[in-house]
Write a structure and sequence with these properties.
Layout: H1 18-27, H2 30-43, H3 47-57, H4 63-76, H5 80-91, H6 100-112, H7 116-129, H8 136-149, H9 152-161, H10 171-184, H11 187-197, H12 205-212, H13 218-230, H14 237-249, H15 253-265, H16 272-284, H17 288-300, H18 307-319, H19 323-335, H20 342-354, H21 358-371, H22 377-389, H23 393-406, H24 411-424, H25 428-440, H26 447-459, H27 463-474, H28 477-486
Helix pairs in contact: 2-4, 4-6, 5-6, 6-7, 6-8, 8-9, 8-10, 10-11, 10-12, 12-13, 12-14, 13-14, 14-15, 14-16, 15-16, 16-17, 16-18, 17-18, 18-19, 18-20, 20-21, 20-22, 21-22, 22-23, 22-24, 23-24, 24-25, 24-26, 25-26, 26-27
Amino acid sequence: MFLRHYTSESPFRSILPSNLILRRLFSFNPNDDVNKVFNILSNSSSPEHLQQTLKSSGIFLSNELIDQVLKRVRFGHANPSQTLEFFNYTGRRKGFYHTAFSLDTMLYILGRSRMFNHVWDLLTEARRKDRTVITPRTVMVVLARVAKVCSVKQTVESFRKFKKIVPDFGTDCFNSLLRTLCQEKSMTDARNVYHSLKHSFHPNLQTFNILLSGWKTPEDAESFFKEMKEMGVEPDVVTYNSLVDVYCKGREIDKAYKVFDEMRERDLSPDVITYTCIIGGLGLIGQPDKARDVLKEMKEFGIYPDVPAYNAAIRNFCIAKRLGDAYDLVDEMTNKGLSPNATTYNLFFRIYYWSNDLPSSWSLYKRMMVEGCLPNTQSCMFLIRLLKKHEKAEMALQLWGDMVEKGFGSYTLVSDVLFDLLCDMGKLLEAEKCFLEMVEKGQKPSNVSFRRIKVLMELANRHEAIQNLTQKMGVFGQTLQVRENVMTPVVEMRELDSQENI
């Protein structure tokens, strides 16, 4: 049904004047205004042009609208420098305060582009104007971007700087650091930082749940579970789920079921996450049919499978190369009103990629677009690599066009493969067009791709085009310098240098 046909097998801080209230009530179209502002932001040639166009547009720049525009920028990969101008311009209005959501989104956009000097300048200004918008979530947003390009030591140094900024620099912020290290570095790094800083904070239940969530060996998880109990911190369902997960990943299903029993003895009912871990563990030991039975068992306890639970069961059948059973579970899921997500599709994309099945992959991709489920980066990489292998340049350009139009996937990762394909097939004009589209989105093509296109242009005597592309690449020079600065990282906070460190 769903897949079989497509496969080879089958609130405001200030009071608004009354006229603005009327305007909001009778003429505000959220989606239309967000699109207009986003287009103004994307197409402005200078800060002055941006401000003038916004003023003449007559659009009321409310907190709600700004939140949505910044969200659109984040997922649409628009120009980060222009977005910062927009953020600063709207924030300079008398009596206006950005929301915490706007601040965190802007910081994410800047951090993704390695514009760390601007990140700390923005935090300094937020601290001066309204410290309440700086939260533990802000700490995690910033540290996550720093950790991607810096060492653990440098990430911790950046964390220390937040003591001068965050109103309540305590356990919640400490937990943000640990979560970042678990996600961006390693559990060993998180453990070492925990032990070095735990005496400066007060570890709580969330601290241990974070530390228990990513261990790959039962021994490590059991050690933290023991320390948790010794400190008098009572485990909850999340804690026990982490233990079940690590036992299942370690193929120790018997121990996982013992945790089930302990939970019930403590009047803690297993939830859908507990069962999902069990489903995944049964698949790892080669029992996909028993895992499917767990889906039925859940319902008997009043717990209904969600999309991740079904995905775990589908993954088991994909691993076992029983795609017919996997399709049946997708049909069952959709019949229950659950929509497959990008992870569901990726389970099949992986199978098709390794079996070199381009027709099924492309049909699945088209189905995703019809269903409105945008592919993630993994989906795009499976597709673009398969298209390169089959030398399908037109289809690859269609994928790229969808990415540019709808803002999904990683331009950087996909473009490297795309440029290789286009250059191999001598499609220089198409490569140049995609290069310029990427730059217009504020995304830097890799130096390898730039050099390859440049060589072909030299052979074609297209010297003006080479000069144009070189100038476009030069725009990213400042960003590269910022990245070098943060690698030290001496992140300048001139107003705060005289204050105390941890």
